[in-house]
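Quick illustration for those who missed Monday's session on complexes.
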Amino acid sequence: MDYVIQNREPKDALRYFEELSAIPRGSRNEKAAAEYLMAFAKEHGLWCHMDELYNVYIKKPGTPGCENLPPVLMQGHTDIVCEKNQDTVHDFEKDGLKLYVEGNMLKAKGTTLGADDAVAVTYMMSFLARNDFPHPPLECVFTTQEEIGLNGAYIIDPDLIKARRMLNIDSGPEGVLVVGAAGGQNIVITKEVTREPVQGITLGLHIRGLFGGHSGRMIDKERGNANKLMARLLHYGAKVADLRLVSISGGDKANAIPRECDAVIALPAGQKDALVKVLREQEAMIQDELAFSDAGFVLNLEENAPATMGMITKECGDQLVQMMFLAPCGVVAKSMALKDLTVCSLNMGVSRTSEEAVVITYSVRSSQDSLLELTRERLICLADTFGAKADPKDAYPSWKYKPDSPLRHFCEKVYKEHTGEDLKVEAVHGGLECGVFLSKMPDMDIVALGVNNYNAHTPQETMDLDSYGRVYTYIEALLRKMAEGE
Ligand SMILES: [Zn+2]
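Prediction with zinc ion bound:
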């Protein structure tokens, strides 16, 4: 193949990067990438195993003299998020990514680059292939379907893993060691509704202009939540008008802060001016509150908005609006042990309306299991109070910060020796596969790290090639030190 990355180190890892990028590997489509890894292992005479979700395990003995040292587990995921620009012609099922280099940056033409998590895959391949430096026994696990719910990690067989220290290479930026992550759960609240024919006039309320963002990383940034803001507008509106809800719909995913929300209401024609006045007052207040954190908020009003369903009966609609107005959303608790870390939060991610019900989907996260349980209980209690039903779904385990992690101290020490600088130690409020590994192997000592990779999960994804080279040599330094028995 024609390689586009020239004259850069580590050459072999970057060649693997380009080979891997030529293989389509969106989540649930990892088979070809897994087979590529299996062929690689066999070619190098390494033990390997592939399971039914195409997770791949490859093991390599320690180099001579290091065969009996404790093994180390390295781990990352093969799948990528498939996002492309509107005008890009690309079939993620069939086409390889078209990589190019701009300055120090590696990108893909019009699509995600998949450095999340090609970095891990290609580092591991390189360390498995190299025989020119001493290292302990290596156990490498390449997981699948990480981006759609950590599915591969859930079926990892702990019996195939001997190591009790683990480097997850799916984090970053460079210079940061991640030592904890939130667990979480989606909670789906369903409020069944009854309807009657629309009377009076209709009005559409459209919230636009908000930033949104990842509900783990951005939840403490005081960004507006379009679903919550809509509930506020409806609540205040109901004080001056006999407004009746027809539909509400906001957000796309439970784990993204909703940027937009649309509602259609019906009301007596004579109350419109009073209602619009209140809505505009609220809009101005919200703009003022969000002036520094989410300045683009606007409320667009649409007269005679089409109502595709009847209006929700008064009692039902009032209960729904009050429930959404009172519902908790945002940061619940911050850490006193790790600066700026959110310990517990929830995001009212999605609202949807059908003929029979309004459904609200929350993403709740916490690194403290008891707070997750408390928040879940609050939502169940809230739903109960307003004649709705809350169903907890899709839980994933937390990776709780361990104050006494030998692997963390080791990584800090080697980083200082290797770069002269201090490694930053952080916990994150997003979910990571590490929590799943820990739930299967509670005595595993885990750290996570990665390279400078920007705008992951978007077509603007960009990886810093210099950072890729530096982090590679740092991990090599860790393995060399482990080979000395540390
Ligand atoms: Zn990732």
